[in-house]
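Regression test attached.
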Amino acid sequence: MMATINITVNGQQIEREVDESRTLAQFLRNDLGLTGTKIGCEEAECGICTVLVDGVPVDSCVYPVLKAQGKSIKSVEGLAEGETLHPIQSSFIEHGAVQCGYCTPGLMMTATALLNENPDPSEQDIKVALKDTYCRCTGYASVIRAIQSAGRELRGETPLPVNDPAVSEPMHVISRSVPPQEVRAKVTGQAKYTDDITFPGMLYARTLRSRYPHAKILSISTEKAKALPGVQAVLTHADVPGENLHGLVYRDWPVLCDTVVRYMGDAVAIVAADTEDLAAEALKLIEVEYEPLPVVADPQYAHTAEAPVLHPEHPTGNLLKHIKVRHGDIEAGFAQADVIIEREYHTPTTEHAFLEPECAIGVPAGYPDHDKLTVYVGSQIPYQDRNQLGLALGVPEESVRVIGTLIGGGFGGKEDIAGQIHVAMLANATGRPVKMLYTRQESLVFHPKRHATTIRMKTGATRDGKLIAVQAELYGDAGAYASLSDKVLTRATTHATGPYAVPNAKIDCFAMYTNNVPSGAFRGFGVTQSAFAVEQNMDLLAAELGIDPVQFRLINAQKVGVTTATGQLLRESVGLIETIEDAWKDMQAHHNGDGFRWAWRDGHKAYGWGIACAYKNTGLGGGAPDKSEAEIEAFEDGTVEVRTAAADMGQGLAHVVAQCAAEELKLPYEKVRVLLCDTDLTPNGGPTTASRQTFVTGNAARLAAVALRDALTQSAAEMMDVPPQTIRYEEGLLRSNGHQVEMGRLVHWMKSHGLTSRVRHEYYAPKTQPLGSGGDMHFAFSYATQSALVEVDMETGEVHVLKIVSSTDIGRAINPLMLQGQIEGGIVMALGHCLTEAYIIEDGVPWSRLLARYKMPSIKHAPEIVSHLVEHRSEAGPYGAKGVGEIPSINTTPAICNAITNATGVRIYATPVDQDALLLAIKNGQTELHTAWQHVR
Amino acid sequence: MLKPFVIHEPRTPQQASELLNEYGWDATVYAGGTELLVVMKEGLASYAHLINIKTISDIHTIHLTDNDAALRIGAAVTHRAIETSSMIAAHAPLLIEMERSLANVRVRTMGTLAGNLCFAEPHSDPAAVCMAWPGASFELTSTDGVRQVLPDEFFIDLFMTARQENEIMTAIHLPLLPPGMGSAYHKFVLLERPSVSVAAFVSVAGTTIKSAHIAVGSVGPVPYRATAAENMLLGQTPGDEPYRAAAEAAASAADPVGDLYGSVEYKRQLIRVLTRQALQQASERAMGVERL
């Protein structure tokens, strides 16, 4: 039923006819076009849709707009006064509290309500107020600081100083904490993510997914759905014009299933209709007859002869890939070992929970302003999307254009195809733009997750504390389709010695197909799992040998001159020892000269420190050509634009390339714009994966800027009639002995002389070798050490992480503050994996299909983080930089687990840590805990 | 996705009751909507008619009643209004402690105490507190009249209360604690809602416990009173030993099920720990070590 609503929105009186069941979020976004308010879950769980109604924060996704009758609404768009930002907005920018920006409006609105009531909140007050307002990027530390700083500003005091980490040798713009690109749009609600874009005449699409984890499809009937008025297209496998398969490494994933479904997220049919409700209604009218098949739910079972084979065309059956590392002589190695530790570890499937669910829009060729079939999507790999679109549609890929929008978090979960092909098919079929937004619940069931693993790890050392041999066997649950399992589990395997010198190694990993949700890329890319086993075996060995865990790591730490288990001689940029020393210094400093203790008791609270190290490759490696191309153009207004199709999902690639360009041209940072991810306008920057973009696309941008500088120099020399080598760049001016010209004027001169001020550079990263052939498997590694201080309640088993001390060798910090944000965010994400997160799936049926059933760390879990940067320059990296995206998420879990062991005497062999089982183990005097939270059920 | 619905705006409890009579199963009472809209969105419930009781005028206040011996909290009063009420701070500070830790600020600004009680979610914080609160009662109103229901009669099963189809809860009555009585509420939270919660009210005269009210929430379909534990404490001197014994009794009285909130044995252990802590704090407060 329609009703008239009279409300004030951001100070403006509004009267509208609305449907009574419309939510406030829908009203703001769809009726008023105020898309700054984001929707993350539709379950009142995540808090990012928070707006203020008469000053109080509400979840606008479950607030019927009619309830706001006569009231005053404030959304993120109403925070600023004209051009002047509200202190909460400016301090979020200042303190680096904005990464992907998708949760930012919800955080800021909740914080505004708090500050209106209490302009001087303590950290505890902020944690109470922002409870259940999720952010998956920042780790909350910068958010807390930004809120406190804004409070001071509102009280008329000076804002808090920025917690900018110490770095060496800041340059013109490099190693300076400039604000990220588009940050102002993100804090004012103007930033456009895919679901914020609409087109006149646009249709809404939904996907019919499988009813079973494994079944034969006997028939599909779409007649009734097609007959529903308002339904414009219903498509099945029969309508896929090209190859009905996609996949980044193996093309094994049907665009729309024809004869068989292999997991609950499989797509069987797609619908486009006039409204979302109609599309949802139409799904119910599609009749699919299935014959359920036996479910393969366990990777080890999948490897047995009796397990049904899920991909008969795959030459090795359910074994997607057997990955091997062989180094030295394993038998001889263990024969020399004085102490051997062998243990089995389990890690669960985990979910990225990026706060922006997948969304794609297809616009048909010929639609106004669209010459080509165009897909708008927040994707980590736009060019690969285009390639897969071309193959599925049976057209040359150049006939399709992919435009990357802002991404509300990815963490590896937005590398595979989601709705890209479906919206393109529906746009072609209907001749109209079609948007497909996944619900949170659908996203949970559909997209590839982190691999669940079983890891058997045997580590041997000699009496003097030297590692001598590592043998490991890993089983990884690849799920129904290959996705990136091959690459991810290769990384788990090659990093399974840990960042240590290990002369003999034999590591086998079995990537297995099952009927579970596919597993793919997720920050840490397999190394997270093996590090859990490696670093706990390290502590076990240290104890057995009677050597201090810090000392034991220092003895074995990789350094220049060491050869890794894949046969790579490390020749530079190995800062691990310094990171261990940093962490150790801070652990001691925590005790203020009272003498460091690994563990102590205070009443029924047990405290313990734990330490763990990590390393992670930068770049694709393994012989894959790793390249990126960037274009740069200088304009007559004195600005330059850098163009590359490399995704910024919040990690900050955009400011990295802008800083590289500004550095080479000695331009003010504000003079550089960045255009990302448009396959028609930007050259290919390659996938945003493997912590590679700073290194590879950073270099592409840097070298493009160098080439532009050469061109500008030549022209300026000619224009001013001075020798080119005398020309100096200074803040947008080119100077030579008393002569000078503004860059914009020079560009004007060049154009009038038929010269171009636009250049491209294709950068190839140093060549790497495939696994098994020795040599450089990777061109750089980042290193880290983290120490965790935990408090365990010996009456309840509850674990609190009080503090994380972190030191990370990233070669060089291009943007210290934003880089620190990557580290803090990575740590809190990993803390979730250690203590709270497990994606539960039973016999192929996900139980975790609501966000309410997936426990992410909230602000109340955020520990104190002390972060140091170590800068061992990488020669080929831009200004010496290496990757940072993944390294912080790798060793947090084992550091916490080692701390728990030190505090309680119980070692953790399965995550997430279950307080219930931990308490029981403590009480029974057990020293091993093999039960994780999800096993209790 | 929300199915279409109509929102009705009655002005009196009687009008609300009439609407409930008229639409029957197709209608439900709607206050904060923090639970209702979520279950409707998830398709677990579907109503064509929502009776918005926030438009009823005289259920929005918190005031003293019964010659200033009790608090009357109107059914439309939100958690947040209780959390920030000076009246509550002065007369029932335990409620502020409870509210401050309930769900999150958005749920508290929208959700009402009465709505929480009527929804009867097994992990409800207020249910456990009200169950233990000496003399607490709920006022239910319909076209048939007004009645007072005690908490242990009100909570029948999970998501099921003694409220009739045509009744709305109009108020919560909470007698003020007599001098010499202290209260405490302790809970253990792992997921969104408590795994176990314990509310305790203890009266101490001199060095003797005169009364004890203990309710354990979240472990069963409805909170239960740990009566054996309460009786054991009568006449005892406040101290760790009797509290441990009472906590043990409260734990044995539980009939938990094992789920993601914890195994059976773990929930018993949490009851032990939380009961002891709650009794300890309540008696300290009773003896004026800390006023609450």
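Expected vs. actual: identical. Residues 640 and 806 of chain A are 37 Å apart (CA to CA).
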